[in-house]
Each structure stands twice: as structure tokens, then as C-alpha cells.
């Protein structure tokens, strides 16, 4: 009995952390599966621990409900295992800092803006892009991102301004792709920008995105016909890292179902 109480206390604390994590991020308008799911799971854990005794009595009285309950826990544990495997796969395969080969163009994938300014995640992508751009001053820089909900300027505009103001990169080098709303469209629409500057799918392209996103971005680019790419990863802010990874878990599955790669 003492062991059971201890486990319930642990589960309650985990549930509270998950709930607060999702709740705080949702208040910041970060509304996606990576924030909604922890909130729901956290609420369930809290509810389960608070009403543990009542739930056990119901399960003892209704054998069918008990079987469904047990099956649900089995499915949840299998999902947790798959999530752990996916997180481990990302951790092992995300690109570490290394020498980037010479490239003809740099594509920076969008990641949202907040009140006209790049989000912390997007700012880190732009920082990584600026580092590559400084190594290869002749490479074009394509900033890719359309208009977010509630914003008055596109991601591409905000990204271009950030690079010009923080790194003093010439506006002449920065090409804006300001119509896309997804990774697939980021890369697809950027092809027209490349073509307009005498570059094609066989050109040497650096794709800049967050660490968790490099695998999917690379797979989508290859499916679209990009032939000579290198993905450059930026760190994800610690306060949103695992929410972003959780979101990517579902995005990876949906991308596979939609045959994006």
C-alpha cells in the first residue's frame, strides 16, 4: 500500500508538470499537439491519482470496463516506448557542428514569428544561417515563410530584417519566399526563387532548420528532387524543446501518411 501511495504521488507530480508545461505554452499562443497532448495527459494523471480509490472500485465492479482500462494502459505504454525510440533516433541523428561545404544558396525554413519578430526557435535558425552566410559570402540566402495567423508581416520579411539588423547582411543577398505555410511548401516554393537566380535542384544547397526537424526536412527535399543538399541544424530552446520534439513525432507520421517523403 505504501508503495502504491508513493507511485501515485510521483504520478501526480508528473501530471502537474505536464499540465503546467502545456498550459503555460498554450497561453503564449503555442497551440499544437506538442502542447495540447502534455496538458491532456497531465490532467488525466492528476484525475487518476486524486480519484484512484473510486476508479479502482468501479473497475472491480465492472469487468468489461476493467479490460478496456487495462488495454488502454497497454496502448499508452506502447506509445511511450515508440516516443522514446523516436526521441532517441532524433538525438542520435541530428547533425552536430561541422565544417559546411561550399554552397550556392542557403534556404532558411520558417518557424513562426511573434508580434513581427522571429520566435526564439526561428532566431536560432537565422543565427545558424548567418554563420554559414559569413563563410560563403557569394551564396544567396532564401528566407522562407508566409503570413502567420494574427500577424501583419510575413515570416520572410521578419527573417530578412533580422539578418540585416543583427548581422548586417546585404538586402541584395536575401531572397524572400513569402507564400509558404509548411515545410513542404517552404522547399517547393523556394525552387522558383532558385530558378529565378539561375540555380536548380542540382545546385549545392544548405537547408537551415532546427535540430529535431533536419531529418524530415531532408527527406522532403530529396522527395522533391533536391540533389545536392546539406542540412544545418540549430539548437531548440530548452523551454520548448521536448514540446517541439513531441510535435515532430506526429508531423513525421503525418508526413509519411501524406507521402511527403
Automatic annotation (TrEMBL):
<keyword id="KW-0812">Transmembrane</keyword>
<dbReference type="GO" id="GO:0000270">
    <property type="term" value="P:peptidoglycan metabolic process"/>
</dbReference>
<dbReference type="Pfam" id="PF02698">
    <property type="entry name" value="DUF218"/>
</dbReference>
<dbReference type="InterPro" id="IPR051599">
    <property type="entry name" value="Cell_Envelope_Assoc"/>
</dbReference>
<feature type="domain" description="DUF218">
    <location>
        <begin position="104"/>
        <end position="250"/>
    </location>
</feature>
<feature type="transmembrane region" description="Helical">
    <location>
        <begin position="5"/>
        <end position="27"/>
    </location>
</feature>
<keyword id="KW-1133">Transmembrane helix</keyword>
<feature type="transmembrane region" description="Helical">
    <location>
        <begin position="71"/>
        <end position="90"/>
    </location>
</feature>
<keyword id="KW-0472">Membrane</keyword>
<dbReference type="GO" id="GO:0043164">
    <property type="term" value="P:Gram-negative-bacterium-type cell wall biogenesis"/>
</dbReference>
<protein>
    <submittedName>
        <fullName>YdcF family protein</fullName>
    </submittedName>
</protein>
<dbReference type="InterPro" id="IPR014729">
    <property type="entry name" value="Rossmann-like_a/b/a_fold"/>
</dbReference>
<dbReference type="GO" id="GO:0005886">
    <property type="term" value="C:plasma membrane"/>
</dbReference>
<feature type="transmembrane region" description="Helical">
    <location>
        <begin position="33"/>
        <end position="51"/>
    </location>
</feature>
<dbReference type="InterPro" id="IPR003848">
    <property type="entry name" value="DUF218"/>
</dbReference>
Amino acid at each position: 500500500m505504501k508503495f502504491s501511495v508513493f507511485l501515485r504521488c510521483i504520478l501526480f507530480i508528473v501530471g502537474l508538470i505536464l499540465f503546467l508545461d502545456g498550459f503555460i505554452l498554450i497561453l503564449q499562443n503555442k497551440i499544437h499537439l506538442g502542447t495540447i497532448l502534455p496538458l491532456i495527459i497531465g490532467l488525466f494523471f492528476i484525475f487518476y491519482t486524486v480519484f484512484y480509490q473510486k476508479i479502482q472500485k468501479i473497475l472491480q465492479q465492472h469487468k468489461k470496463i476493467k479490460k478496456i482500462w487495462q488495454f488502454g494502459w497497454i496502448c499508452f505504454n506502447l506509445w511511450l516506448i515508440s516516443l522514446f525510440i523516436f526521441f532517441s533516433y532524433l538525438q542520435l541523428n541530428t547533425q552536430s557542428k561541422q565544417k559546411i561545404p561550399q554552397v550556392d544558396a542557403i534556404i532558411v525554413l520558417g518557424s513562426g514569428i511573434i508580434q513581427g519578430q522571429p520566435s526564439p526557435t526561428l532566431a536560432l535558425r537565422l543565427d545558424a544561417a548567418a554563420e554559414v552566410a559569413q563563410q560563403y559570402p557569394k551564396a544567396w540566402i532564401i528566407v522562407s515563410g508566409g503570413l502567420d495567423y494574427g500577424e501583419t508581416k510575413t515570416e520572410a520579411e521578419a527573417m530578412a530584417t533580422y539578418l540585416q539588423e543583427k548581422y548586417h547582411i546585404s538586402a541584395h543577398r536575401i531572397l524572400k519566399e513569402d507564400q509558404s505555410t509548411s515545410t513542404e511548401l517552404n522547399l517547393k516554393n523556394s525552387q522558383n526563387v532558385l530558378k529565378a537566380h539561375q540555380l536548380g535542384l542540382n545546385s549545392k544547397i544548405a537547408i537551415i532548420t532546427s535540430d529535431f526537424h533536419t531529418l524530415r526536412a531532408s527527406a522532403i527535399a530529396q522527395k522533391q528532387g533536391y540533389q545536392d543538399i546539406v542540412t544545418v541544424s540549430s539548437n531548440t530552446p530548452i523551454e520548448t524543446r521536448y514540446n517541439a520534439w513531441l510535435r515532430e513525432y506526429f508531423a513525421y507520421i503525418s508526413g509519411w501518411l501524406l507521402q511527403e517523403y
